[in-house]
Every structure is written in C-alpha cells, then in structure tokens.
Design goal:
Phage tail protein beta-alpha-beta fold, Ferrdict_sens_TM, FecR, membrane, single chain, transmembrane, 19-stranded mixed β-sheet, 24 strands, alpha+beta, sigma factor antagonist activity, 28% helix, globular, 35% strand
Length: 384
C-alpha cells in the first residue's frame, strides 16, 4: 500500500503540487476507495472552513464492519442471541461513554462569551521634531514640519519636501502604532513603510548623506524606492538590513525569541554582531536572541507578509505562536489552561479584519482545543 505525507495533501488543496508529487498523489488516491473518500472529506472541510487539520481517521463504515466481523468470529454460531446482546452491549457502552465524556467536557470548559472582539484598525501617533505628538486618525489633515509638508489621509501619512536645500541639522520624526493599530508611512524618497501593530519607525524628514537610514521596532514591510547611489539601511534592535531598491519584511519584538528578515523582491544584506548573510527573493534571515546565531534559509514568504494585504496565512504553526501574534492585533491577553494546547498545529487562510470569535470557532472545529473569552481575556483548553 502506498504511503503519502500530509504535506502532499495540503499542497494538493492549495494547488501547489509538482508534476512528480501530482503523480504520487493520483496513484495514492486511486489505490483504494477509502483513500478517495478520505480526500473528498478533507477537501470539503477545506472549502467550507478555509483550513485543514492533520488527521488520518479511518472510514467509520469500515471500522464498524471490522467490529462486526470480530464479534462474529469470537462468538459461537449457536449463540446468536448472545452475539446480539454482546454487540448491543458494546454499542450501548460506546454511546454512554460518549455522552458522559461530552457532559463532562461541557462542565469542565465554560461557554465562550459571544461578545464581538474586532480586529485592529488604522491608528498611530506621529511625533514631530519639536516633540509635539499628533494622533493620526481617520480624518484627512496637513501638518507643517521643518522643510516638509506632511499629509495624512487617514490610513497613510506622506512627506513632501518643501525646500530643495539641505537642512543644517537632520530633522527626525517618529510614527508608532499601538496594540491593535497599523499605519502606512511614505517617506520623502517615495519609500513606503507598512507598520504592523505595536511597531514604530524613526526617520529623517529629508534624507541626507550617502545612505538613507531609518530605525524600526516591531514589524514593518518596506517597498524601497530604487536609488543605487544612496543605499537604504534599516536598523532594528542592533541588526542592519541594507538594500538598494526592494521589498521585504522585518519583525523584531521584545517578547519573541527570533528576529526575522523576509525578502520578497530584490536583494538585501543582513548584518548582526559580526555575522552577515545576503538574501535573494523567497529567503529569510533569522537571528536567534537566545543563542546569538544568524541563519538563513528558503521559505514560503506568504505566511510572513500576508498581514500587509489584510490576510492571516497560517501554515502548520503552533497555537502558542499564532496567538502570540494575534495578541498584538486584537488587543487580547491569552492564558493556556493546559500546556499541551500550546503545541497544537493549525493551517488557516482568512481575513485578518474580522471578529476574533469567528477565527477561534474555526480552530474549535478541529475538536482539539476550546476557547473561553471574558472581556479581552482568552483562556485556551486542550481537548486532546
């Protein structure tokens, strides 16, 4: 019998199989009706819910046939009535056991609060060179700054140089997002920076010198304007990312073990404490804060950059890691009642602007975890 890896099934659902993998999948599926029926059920679940879980359940009818066959072999033919009562007893025990388990589980795990917990939105604080802070909200406005005009559109703040001359002393501004916030910043050179939740960028109002330098904390996606004579340098927690013109994502939070640089287009050089590497598209550099090691590898970039397009793309990630990211966007606190719930893995692809309850309900469909929500506190229970 042909064995097949779960990754092959997942890639089939996403339409990403190679020709060789497609042939392997077709052979496995056509080998038995059980395989075909299993995939049909998984495919239906994926289409209805947008994600799948890794399970290898046997077909229920096949399991029942095997149980009946075992009972027939174990019982003598002349004791037909005994066989009937034995089978009935087995079924009754199974049913009563399931009822008892469901009742106990309902008592152990409280019902979830139905209150809507909405996702974050466009909001940020702009700190001018004078120290004055301006709340960037949905209203359109213009703000005066030294040598520049700042235009706020409600989701994006843009810088327009007013004086072509170079200012004597560099003038810096800072844009920072709160928990549950995001914002786009267009710098004076046309570079766009998409800030994630609980993130900030400090930058000169007007770039001067050989390199265009900015400082970032948290998560930011960059679309850098091409300028080979003035490389663009991003500093994040002691790490430097140098580019000419490219698109990439950086992520570094104090409560997360890794710092990540994920390259979408172009080429970047990553430098940290004497270590360095050069990335090409679809590669990621990771600095491990615990071991002080820099590594880089090819990756599927979509889960790391989908947030910029308003999506949650989760692929075989631990629930603890998933919720750690969601905490920053949904402004929630998470507590794991059972440690084993942290290691449950999920796949999902959905809108990141919806109600948190809807997302958690999809996770609960796997019957591996359950969530209790009180206010902005989420408690996680393992059902395994």
């Amino acid at each position: 019998m042909i064995q097949i890896e779960w990754d092959i099934i997942e890639k089939k659902l996403q339409g990403k199989l190679t020709l060789e993998e497609e042939r392997l999948f077709d052979t496995w599926r056509s080998e038995t009706s059980v395989n075909d029926d299993y995939f049909r059920k998984i495919e239906k679940f994926y289409r209805e819910n947008g994600f799948v879980k890794e399970v290898w359940d046997e077909d229920m009818e096949v399991s029942w046939d095997r149980l009946q066959g075992r009972l027939k072999r174990d019982l003598r033919p002349k004791r037909k009535l005994g066989w009937y009562w034995a089978a009935s007893g087995v079924v009754a025990c199974l049913v009563l056991g399931m009822v008892w388990f469901m009742m106990m589980r309902q008592q152990m795990v409280p019902e979830r609060d139905s209150r809507v917990i909405m996702a974050g939105s466009a909001k940020a604080i702009l700190t001018l060179s004078s120290g004055v802070q301006v709340e960037l909200a949905s209203d359109t406005s213009e703000i005066d700054e030294v040598a520049a005009k700042i235009v706020n559109s409600g989701r994006e703040v843009s810088y327009e140089i007013q004086d072509s001359g170079v200012v004597a002393t560099p003038v810096y501004n800072k844009v920072e997002t709160p928990k549950g916030g995001e914002y786009c910043v267009t710098l004076a050179d046309g570079t766009k920076v998409y800030l994630g939740a609980m993130s900030s960028i400090r930058f000169p109002v007007q770039f001067d010198g050989e390199k265009r330098r900015v400082e970032v904390f948290g998560e930011a996606y960059f679309d850098v304007t091409w300028d080979p004579e003035h490389p663009f340098v991003v500093t994040v927690d002691g790490m430097e990312v140098e580019v000419l013109g490219t698109s990439f994502n950086v992520r570094s939070y104090a409560d997360e073990q890794n710092m990540e640089v994920t390259l979408v287009l172009g080429k970047v050089k990553v430098v940290k404490e004497g270590h360095s590497c050069v990335l090409v598209p679809n590669e990621q550099a990771v600095w491990n804060k615990r071991t002080d090691e820099l590594s880089f590898m090819p990756v599927d970039i979509e889960p790391f950059v989908a947030w910029k397009s308003g999506k949650l793309n989760i692929r075989n990630q631990r629930l603890e890691d998933i919720l750690l990211r969601l905490c920053k966007w949904y402004d929630i606190q998470v507590f794991f009642v059972n440690e084993e719930a942290k290691d449950v893995r999920f796949y999902a692809n959905m809108d990141r602007y919806g109600d948190l309850n809807e997302l958690l309900k999809k996770f609960e469909l796997t019957e591996q975890v359950r969530f209790e929500i009180e206010g902005n506190v989420v408690r996680v229970y393992s059902l395994r």
